[in-house]
Design brief:
Distance between the termini: 73 Å
Largest sheet: none
Structural class: mainly alpha
Radius of gyration: 28 Å
Number of helices: 13
Number of strands: 0
Order of helices and strands: HHHHHHHHHHHHH
């Protein structure tokens, strides 16, 4: 007797209208983000600056009894005036120093190749010859590149337009932050509102302290290392000091990069100068790591060294130099949010572990 075959199963795939609309909305949102990524980047920078400036604005409100609009205007205009003054004092000498550095680059490379240490390396590889050719090419192309006034003017105009836009967005965001916060809290129940308020306060304090502390440390780094370069008679001390200060804004790896650059340039004056410059950079790095950072920044960003380096690398890959600068405070803020979201679960897990009989304490090895 033949066994009847089971009836064939009919498989139907149905896609609801809601799914189609959701997918189309995601595609449109992704396209809009890519099309307006420059504007989104400006808004992101303005929002980050607004959080950084929230601390001094609140201080002026409480201590000087100023209205928030006046306090925000004073802080933002003071920051713009400070940056404008630094630009007036430093940009022209910096551009001139960098120009002279590039023009003298072939001679610098030649002097480096003439050193005993580099001659031993140059005998085994052709790196010296390649560096010499690259330096001569860069120096010969400099006049034509500097002479392109239209391109330089367009970049300056675009940078100025972006800077003005970011300044005004930052000003209005600083003024409206309390209103935006109240609008958010109006949608939340009391318990959720209290948690969000605590997170806002902790994140604002973390970002503000870290950013202002990083700026102060970078200023000290540039001053100390630039002054050391000037005392040792190293050429382009001003440019090197500015470079060291800018690299000092990047945590962990910035000071190391500055030490390498300054020591290589100091090698043009001789091996003793290079060793002294390297010793100054290493000594300052130790002072920064063990004295300046704990004193100025405290424990604003309580994250491990691995996450510091990883966040800087990822931030630089996504947003360039700006991403490297803001990576650590953003990572610290994300850590604060994650800790708060998992606080109840971690407390419950701790209670469950404590209830297990015979389990050793966490503090015991």
């Amino acid at each position: 007797m033949a066994i009847p075959e089971p009836p064939a199963k009919r498989v139907e795939i149905t896609v609801s209208v809601r799914t189609v609309v959701t997918v189309l909305a995601v595609i449109v949102a992704a396209w809009a983000f890519l099309a307006a990524r420059q504007a989104v980047f400006w808004v992101f920078i303005a929002f980050f600056l607004a959080i950084v400036l929230q601390t001094p604005v609140t201080w002026l409100e409480e201590r000087a009894a100023m209205k928030r609009g006046n306090a925000a205007m004073l802080v933002v205009l003071s920051l713009v005036a400070l940056l404008g003054g630094l630009a007036y004092l430093l940009i022209s000498p910096f551009v001139g120093a960098v120009r002279d550095l590039i023009e003298d680059l072939p001679n610098i490379v030649e002097r480096i190749r003439a050193s005993d240490i580099f001659q031993q390396l140059d005998r085994r590889t052709d790196i010296g010859e390649k560096l010499q050719q690259r330096a001569e090419s860069l120096a010969s192309d400099l006049p034509s590149k500097l002479g392109d006034a239209f391109e330089v003017g367009g970049r300056i105009f675009g940078f100025g337009l972006g800077a003005i836009t970011i300044v005004f967005m930052t000003l209005f965001l600083v003024i409206d932050l309390p209103n935006l916060s109240r609008s958010l809290h109006s949608l939340l129940y009391p318990r959720e509102s209290a948690r969000i308020g605590m997170l806002e306060e902790r994140i604002t304090r973390t970002i503000g302290r870290y950013a202002l502390g990083a700026l102060a440390i970078a200023t000290i780094a540039g001053t100390v290392q630039g002054t050391a370069a000037w005392i040792l008679g190293i050429p382009f001390a001003l440019a090197l000091g500015i470079v060291a200060g800018m690299l000092g804004l990047i945590p962990q790896i910035g000071a190391t990069l500055a030490a390498v650059i300054l020591s290589l340039v100091a090698l043009t004056q001789g091996i003793p100068q290079a060793l002294i410059m390297l010793a100054v950079c290493i000594g300052y790095q130790q002072v920064e790591n063990y004295i300046l950072q704990p004193t100025i920044q405290g424990r604003a960003a309580e994250i491990s060294g691995f996450f510091v380096i990883a966040s800087v690398i990822v931030g630089a890959a996504l947003l360039g130099v700006v991403g490297a600068l803001i990576a650590v405070p953003l990572t610290a803020s994300a850590q604060i949010v994650i800790r708060e979201l998992t606080a109840e679960r971690r407390a419950a897990v701790a209670v469950a572990h404590a209830a297990v009989p015979g389990r050793p304490d966490d503090d015991e090895p």
